[in-house]
């Protein structure tokens, strides 16, 4: 009758621990792989579509930073503006 107290088999407990450990490793590795895949992209080069404009002269657009030929102000990054509706 005392065998009932020993119903917890050490083997099953160990297997459960191993499964938990494996799950933890999987959860830890998967984000690392996803992150390394993202880092693989060359991020040093600036986006080619970046353009610069003068805050005072919107018609002045340059593909590189500089000064406005009309007023000499520093050009600012031209952000893609959402198309106005209405
Ligand atoms: Zn200007």
Summarize the structure.
With 86 residues, the chain is an alpha+beta fold. It contains one helix and three strands; from the N terminus they run H-E-E-E. A three-stranded antiparallel beta sheet has the order 2-1-3, with no helix packed on it.
Outline the fold blueprint.
Elements: H1 10-39, E1 51-53, E2 61-62, E3 76-78
Antiparallel strand pairs: 1-2, 1-3
The structure holds zinc ion.
Walk me through the structure.
This protein has 86 residues and is an alpha+beta fold. It is built from one helix and three strands. A three-stranded antiparallel beta sheet has the order 2-1-3, with no helix packed on it. Zinc ion binds next to loops.
List keywords for this structure.
86 residues, alpha+beta, 35% helix, binds zinc ion
Mean pLDDT: 79
Task: State the end-to-end distance.
Answer: 84 Å
Percentage of β-strand residues: 5-15%
How many helices? The count is 1
Characterize the biggest β-sheet. 3 strands, antiparallel
Q: Class by helix and strand content?
A: alpha+beta
User: In sequence order, what are the helices and strands, one letter per element?
Assistant: HEEE
Task: Give the neighbour order of strands across the main sheet.
Answer: 2-1-3
What does the oligomeric state look like here? single chain
- Uncertain runs with pLDDT below 50, 5 residues or more? none
Radius of gyration: 30 Å
């Amino acid at each position: 009758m005392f065998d009932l107290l020993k119903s917890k088999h050490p083997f099953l407990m160990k297997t459960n621990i191993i499964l938990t450990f494996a799950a933890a490793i999987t959860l830890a590795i998967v984000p690392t792989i996803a992150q390394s895949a993202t880092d693989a992209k060359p991020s040093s080069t600036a986006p080619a579509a970046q353009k610069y404009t003068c805050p005072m002269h919107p018609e002045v657009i340059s593909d590189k930073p500089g000064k406005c030929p009309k007023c000499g102000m520093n050009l600012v990054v031209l952000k893609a503006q959402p198309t106005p509706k209405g």
